[in-house]
Amino acid sequence: MPDLFLDVVLLALGVGVLYFGAEWLVRGSARLAASLGVSPIVVGLTVVSFGTSAPELVVCAVAALGGNPGLAVGNVLGSNLANIGLILGLTAIVQPLKVHARVVWREMPLMLLVTAALYPLLWDARLSRGDGVLLLLALAGYLAFVFRTVDEESTEVVDEYEDYMKSSTDGALIHPPDVFWILLGSGCLVLGGYCIVEGAVQVASSLGLSQVVIGLTVVAIGTSLPELATALVAAARKEADIAVGNVIGSNIFNVAAILGTTSVLEPIAVPSGILARELPVVLILSVLVFPLLRTGWCIQRWEGAVLLVAYLGAGVYLL
């Protein structure tokens, strides 16, 4: 029991260090990008989404390189579940999310397509380096698409991102500490990721749980805290497109960038059952968002409650 307590403390410490590391990395990177003349909406759709997904990248890389592939895959799928059910659900309960139709018709199908693409890649129960390259190519295509279509965004969406980035980057003026915060945040991500993986593996072993389960639950929620903070802040400012866009963008990054990068570094042996249980649940919850967003282009409080209950139900089923 004392060993279990220490493992839980290590896991909690890792989550805390990871959260602040992601916060510092996002803030420093966003201010640096803004100071270099990158438009606020591009920073919001790329730098912020990737920065809030950085914890998943570090945890997955550390887990895969350390011989814990179940934790890596479980973290990505669990984070995507948490982003949709927990984060969108809680955020909509706090503040109904009214989005523009373009968010639904452009980003949502891309998220579903990238997630569904895991089926053929995982069919042989392995993510090879070739699979990782394909996922990274898909990420490059997504980023090119974002940059090419950014000028087509409505004035309302552009204004949302400008206001959000202005308040987050102190007027987008370059500051010497920006690079320092990026380096400090990156260091904290590595330290936090190592603590999380070590603590999670030991906790799973002590409780008799699989690494996939611990990755789907505790680790996924911990690494999704940056997305939760971003979504709640954006919703409080009535910037729903940022809240929803960050969740959808992070889910795309989680699959394409994180699984892609991790499998290029170290091919991942995918645990049995992923294709039959965890991946279908992620797809079902992802599809559920589509009709909810189409009802007046808004996720109402009761719809947020539906997402939250669906997330809890999915957790019970997977456990």
Strand order of the largest sheet: 1-4
Reported for the largest beta sheet, the result is: 2 strands, antiparallel
| 3D shape | globular
Strand content: under 5%
Output the CATH homologous superfamily: NCX, central ion-binding region
Succession of helices and strands: HHHEHHEHHHHHHEHEH
Rg: 18 Å
CATH architecture: Up-down Bundle
Q: What is the number of domains?
A: 1
Total count of helical runs of at least 4 residues: 13
> What is the CA-CA span between the terminal residues?
22 Å
Mean pLDDT: 80
Q: The CATH topology, please? A: A middle domain of Talin 1
CATH class: Mainly Alpha
In terms of structural class, how would the helical and strand content be classed? mainly alpha
User: How many beta-strand runs?
Assistant: 4
Oligomer state equals single chain
Q: Uncertain regions: pLDDT < 50 for 5+ in a row?
A: none
Share of helix, binned: over 70%
